[in-house]
Every structure is written in C-alpha cells, then in structure tokens.
Amino acid sequence: MGLEEGYDDVLVRDIMSSPPITTLPMTSVKEAARIMLENRVGSLIVVNERNTLLGILTKTDIIREVVAKGLDPESVRVGDIMTRNPYYVYTDDSVERAASLMGEHNIGHLPVLDPETKKPVGIVTKTDIVKLAPNYINVIYSLKQEIDRRERLKRIRK
User: Fold this and answer.
1) How far is residue 103's CA from residue 108's CA, in Å, rounded to a whole number?
2) Is residue 115 part of a domain?
3) Given pLDDT bands bounded at 50, 70 and 90, which one contains residue 22?
4) Which Pfam families does this UniProt record tie to the protein (predicted)?
C-alpha cells in the first residue's frame, strides 16, 4: 500500500468475506442462529432458490425481534424478521463507499454483489473495514517521518 493510497483505492472485493453464508426465508430463526454460531458470523444473507438477494438477517435482528419479544425461535421464520431490500455494494465499489453506507445508515454488514450477475458473492462488515486502519496509521506515520526529515534538511541547509 503506497503513501498516496486511501480508502477509495481499496476495493470491496479486497476485504470481503467470500463466499457468503446464505439462508432461505423459510428457515427457522433457531436454525439460522445455529448456522451463525457454526460459521462464526454475525449475519446471514437471505436469498431465494435462484440465489437472488432478498434480505439480511443479523444477530441484532434475532435479539430484537425474537428473544426480546419472547417468541419461539423454532416457529419464527427468517423471512419474518429479516431486513428486506438491504443496502449492498458491488465487488468493484470502493471501501470508502461501503464505509459511507454503513455510517450513514448505521449498519454493520453489507452484502456484496457481483456487478454482472447481481448475485451475492460476499459480505463486508465494519470489522473488515476497521482492520484496514493499521495500514493507514503506518502511512500517516511514514508521512510524518518524511515531513520531519525534510524539515531537518531545510534547517541544516540554512
């Protein structure tokens, strides 16, 4: 990663998790929770039989819509509580765009679609974006060192 690069130079495909963990809308919330635990993920992309994006289900959805209401997770279906028509990004979108969408809409998971097929091919999370921060901290530190070095050279030349 060069000094001149920013978040807008990193593409979603570079940081997304792929393939996405998916489920169907008729899956029980209990089964969806088991799938999340088994795969150590915080969300599932909800698709139909043709793998078309229908929605997203997060741990927060399960807590808010099932657990907090005392509902039976075996009788509630994913399609009943998922976020329909979720925001999404394409593989060739910038990480900056993904981060902006997450910030503007207070969301932590974005389905990633193939720009040609419009089918889900991954997921990007706030955690994926935060993992980039050390790279940019190093870039800032390197820039500061270069500025300091140039300032010292200017003083020496005077």
Assistant:
1) 9
2) yes
3) very high
4) CBS (PF00571)
Q: What is the average pLDDT across 36-55? A: 97
Can you give the pLDDT at residue 144?
66
DSSP letter at 90 equals E
DSSP letter at 108 equals S
For 99-155, how does the pLDDT look when each residue is reduced to its tens digit (9 = 90+)?
889 989 989 999 999 999 999 999 999 888 888 766 655 555 666 667 777 777 777
Give CA separation, 18 vs 43, 111, 132, 138, 141, in Å.
13, 10, 17, 27, 32
Looking at the structure of the chain, the number of domains it has is 1
| Rounded Cα gap, residues 101 and 32, in angstroms | 25
CA-to-CA distance for 54 and 109, rounded, in angstroms?
15
CATH number of domain containing 30:
3.10.580.10
Torsion, Cα of 46, 119, 18, 74 (10° steps): 10
pLDDT average, residue stretch 41-68: 97
Distance CA 118, CA 102 (A): 20
Percent of the chain, pLDDT > 70? Answer: 85
Whether residue 1 lies inside any domain: the answer is: no
Q: Is 113 part of a structural domain of the chain?
A: yes
